[in-house]
Every structure is written in structure tokens, then in C-alpha cells.
């Protein structure tokens, strides 16, 4: 994790403190990590983007793919700063043009992630952005959409509760970084996933 | 699936990984087959002559006929987002307009307002407030109902996101009938903010969104 590798980055503490935990959302037992409070602190929000930009700017990344909807909040600023295009990965029937789709498993049932045909092509180096990775379901769908040759990196604001080794194999093959690990930082939490 | 080397990240300042792991290639050329279906939108001339940027912005927007239903010509901004310079220019034009206006809040309407709003907010030092569909925001919210063509929908904003005295900008990709923008404006005003302007990339003037917003100021880059 970034915070472990860097020693103490003073920006990370403020970022962590700016995220609000809302109990029992969307259902009882779930501790929801709310990034909207971070967005209300311009300096902290800027630090988040700058940390990612510092990390990725020299890696020849040509596209940043953001997962709807909170990935849309963080991805475009990173894309603009590193000279990459931005690709929205969306729920079904939102994208107007021809799409490719990837289904993924929810706790109950399945959902689908879509991307426009032609948004990315072989050889591109892509960064996938979301606010949070928990079980890795949407992340894996994004990776499958973009193709095994194309995903180099994946960045999230933080991971929640799921030890790295328990993530699905496809995710293990990809390097990922997280600004904050809730396993280290949250003192009280229910036994179910965030 | 090819094996990808397992890598350890170091501190951001030393994030240069060995070059042999990543044979770098230049960014790929623009994707030609995305372009042929563009219909030229009329770029709005600004008084200080920014036409050269607007032309590229305008031509990067793709029209998709009959989406989401027959008869509708959908203005697709995803192709603008694939053109880094056009996306950069879009944000720059908004930032230039608002940076000296003492804006403390940029409210972005889900979901495409989330793409344009945050870069503007970051550049002008304002907070970003997401305006969302029902049941998406986890904390206490205030809601505003608005009319759709058939039926109604609701928009929500977190309690406490905005205070009396905040000067707000509302951002969305497009203004059509003005229904969603109106709902956003009402939510912000109910929370005590002064809504300075609504800003969109695209306007569909025949749908009279400006009339719905009454006296409130609307700024757009291109008209459909």
C-alpha cells in the first residue's frame, strides 16, 4: 500500500480523515465509505489527484477508464493532468453508441459494465479508477472489458477489508495501489464487508 | 492471459519503473471510425474570440440518432473525452470564466456532470457537490422532484454540503428542457446558496431550457 511504502505522507492522513463512514448503508451491517465529504475539502481533493498524477504521469498511460459513477469524479482530473483520454465505464444502456459488455456477480444477482467500441485499442496503456475496491467484482469486469493485454494499473482511493490474497486471480495479476487500507484504519466495523 | 510481472511500488517520487518492463510507445493516433457521423454543431462565438477552441470541441461531439428512443439525436460527449485537447480546452474555457467569480461550490449533476464538474472545481478551488439520483447518497439528504416527459424523478443532495453564503455553479454536459438543472438550482437555493450560473457544454435551444430557468444565467459552449 502507498501509505506503507512511503512512510508517513502527511497528505494521506488528511485524506483518510476526510472520508466519512456511514453505518448501515445501503443496508444494515454495512459501513459505507463516503467520499463526498472529501470532495468538500478542496485541498484534500487536490492532494488525492496529485498523488495519483505524480505516480502515473511518466508511465505513457494513454487512457484513464473511470467506473460509473464515483470513478467519474476522480478519473477525468487525472486523465487531464497526465495527457490521457478519459473513458467512462457505465451501467447498461447508458452509453449511446455501440458497446461491449461484461457481466459481474453481485451479492444477489448480477450486473453489467459497458464500454464504447473503439474507445481503446490494443497496445494502449490504461489506468482504471474507482473510489473503492471491496470484493473486486466491478474491477474485474472493467479489466475483462479492457482486455488482458491492456490493463497495466489500477488505482483506487482505498481498499476495504478484503485482504489482497483473497481478491480474484485476475486482480492479482494486475498491480494496484490504494491510498488507504481500511483494514489498518477502522477501529470498529461489522463483520460483513464494507 | 499473459503473465504480468509482479511489481512493488515505491514512493511516488521514485515511481520510475525499469524501462525494460514497459516498452513505451507514443500515444496512438485518433480513431478515425468514430468521426464520420459527426454533424457540425454551431459553435457559440464568445466575445473574446475563442472560436478556434470551440470548433474542435464542437466537432468532437458525436451525434447518435434514435437514442435513447426513435427520433432523438443524442449528443454524445464521450468522443470529446477521447480527444485530450478538446477535453482540456472545454475545462479551460469554464475555468477562465469562473476563476475570478469567487465560486465556492461546483455542483455536478449525475452522471456526466461528474466528469466536467470536478476538474473545474479543483482548478478554481471550490468544493465539489454531487447531485444524485435517489438512494445513491449515503448520508442525510434533501430531495427535489422534477418532471420527466412521462412521470417524475428526484434529485438529491447531502445535507450540510452547502451553506448559506456559498456561491454555486451548476454543471451538466447538456441543457435540454432544463428540468434537471432546475431541480439542482432549487436544491442549492433551499440550502442557502447563491446560484451564480448554470454551465453546460451543449444547449438544445429548441427545448427552451433557458426559459425554464427563468432569470438565472446559463452559459454554454456549443448549441445543437
Describe the 3D structure.
Chain A has 194 residues and is α/β, with parallel strands linked by helices. Chain A has helices at 2-5, 10-18, 36-39, 42-56, 71-82, 137-146, 169-172, 182-185, and strands spanning 20-23, 31-34, 63-67, 85-89, 99-105, 110-116, 126-133, 151-159, 175-181. In chain A, strand 7, helix 6 and strand 8 (151-159) form a beta-alpha-beta unit. In chain A, helix 2 (10-18) packs across helix 4 (42-56) and helix 4 (42-56) packs across helix 5 (71-82). Chain A is globular and about 40 Å long. Chain B is an alpha/beta fold and 224 residues long. Chain B has a domain at 101-223: Rossmann fold, CATH 3.40.50. Chain B has six helices and ten strands. In chain B, helix 1 (51-59) packs across helix 3 and helix 3 (84-98) crosses helix 4. The radius of gyration of chain B is 20 Å and the shape is globular. Chains A and B meet through helix 4, helix 5 and strand 4 of A and helix 3, helix 4 and strand 5 of B. Chain B: It holds the Pfam family Pribosyltran.
CATH topology of one domain in chain B: Rossmann fold
Spans of at least 5 consecutive residues with low confidence of chain A: 157-194
- Rg of chain B: 20 Å
What is the strand tally of chain B?
Answer: 10
| Distinct helical segment count of chain A | 8
Subcellular location (chain B): Cytoplasm
Protein name (chain B): adenine phosphoribosyltransferase
Subunit structure (chain B): Homodimer.
Enzyme class (chain B): transferase
Can I get a quick summary?
The complex is a heterodimer of chains A (194) and B (224). Chain A is of the alpha/beta class and 194 residues long.
Looking at this protein, list some descriptive labels.
heterodimer, A: 194 residues, alpha/beta, 5-stranded parallel β-sheet, 8 helices, disordered C terminus, B: 224 residues, Rossmann fold, 6-stranded mixed β-sheet, two-stranded antiparallel sheet, disordered N terminus, glycosyltransferase (chain A), EC 2.4.2.7 (chain A)
Amino acid at each position: 500500500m502507498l501509505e506503507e511504502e512511503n512512510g508517513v505522507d502527511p497528505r494521506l492522513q488528511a485524506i483518510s480523515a476526510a472520508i466519512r463512514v456511514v453505518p448501515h448503508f445501503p443496508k444494515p451491517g454495512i459501513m459505507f465509505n463516503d467520499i463526498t465529504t472529501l470532495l468538500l475539502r478542496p485541498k484534500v481533493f487536490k492532494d488525492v489527484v496529485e498523488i495519483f498524477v505524480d505516480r502515473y504521469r511518466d508511465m505513457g498511460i494513454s487512457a484513464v477508464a473511470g467506473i460509473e459513477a464515483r470513478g467519474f469524479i476522480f478519473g477525468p482530473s487525472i486523465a487531464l493532468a497526465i495527457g490521457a483520454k478519459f473513458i467512462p465505464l457505465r451501467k447498461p444502456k447508458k452509453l449511446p453508441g455501440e458497446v461491449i459488455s461484461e457481466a459481474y456477480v453481485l451479492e444477489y444477482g448480477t450486473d453489467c459494465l459497458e464500454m464504447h467500441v473503439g474507445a481503446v485499442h490494443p497496445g494502449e496503456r490504461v489506468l482504471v479508477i474507482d473510489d473503492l475496491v471491496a470484493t473486486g467484482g466491478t474491477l474485474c469486469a472493467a479489466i475483462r472489458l479492457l482486455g488482458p493485454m491492456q490493463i497495466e494499473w489500477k488505482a483506487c482511493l482505498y481498499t476495504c477489508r478484503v485482504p489482497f490474497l483473497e481478491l480474484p486471480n485476475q486482480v492479482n495479476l494486475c498491480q494496484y495501489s490504494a491510498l488507504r487500507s481500511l483494514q489498518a484504519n477502522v477501529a470498529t466495523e461489522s463483520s460483513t464487508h464494507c | 492471459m499473459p503473465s504480468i510481472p509482479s511489481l512493488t511500488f515505491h514512493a511516488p517520487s521514485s515511481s520510475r519503473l525499469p524501462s525494460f518492463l514497459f516498452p513505451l510507445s507514443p500515444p496512438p493516433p485518433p480513431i478515425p471510425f468514430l468521426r464520420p457521423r459527426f454533424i457540425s454543431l454551431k459553435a457559440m462565438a464568445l466575445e473574446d474570440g475563442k472560436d478556434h477552441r470551440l470548433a474542435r470541441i464542437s466537432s468532437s461531439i458525436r451525434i447518435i440518432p434514435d437514442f435513447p428512443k426513435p427520433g432523438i439525436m443524442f449528443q454524445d460527449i464521450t468522443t470529446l473525452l477521447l480527444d485530450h485537447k478538446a477535453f482540456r480546452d472545454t475545462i479551460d474555457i469554464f475555468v477562465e470564466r469562473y476563476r475570478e467569480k469567487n465560486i465556492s461550490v461546483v455542483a455536478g449533476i449525475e452522471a456526466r456532470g461528474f466528469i466536467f464538474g470536478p476538474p473545474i472545481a479543483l482548478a478554481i478551488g471550490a468544493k465539489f457537490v454531487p447531485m444524485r439520483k435517489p438512494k445513491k447518497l449515503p448520508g442525510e439528504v434533501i430531495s427535489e422532484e422534477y418532471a420527466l416527459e412521462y412521470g417524475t424523478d428526484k434529485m438529491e443532495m447531502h445535507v450540510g454540503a452547502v451553506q448559506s453564503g456559498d456561491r454555486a455553479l451548476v454543471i451538466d454536459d447538456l441543457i435540454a428542457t432544463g428540468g434537471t438543472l432546475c431541480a439542482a438550482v432549487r436544491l442549492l437555493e433551499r440550502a442557502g446558496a447563491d446560484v451564480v450560473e448554470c454551465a453546460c457544454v451543449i444547449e438544445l435551444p429548441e427545448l427552451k431550457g433557458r426559459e425554464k430557468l427563468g432569470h438565472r444565467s446559463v452559459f454554454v459552449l456549443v448549441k445543437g
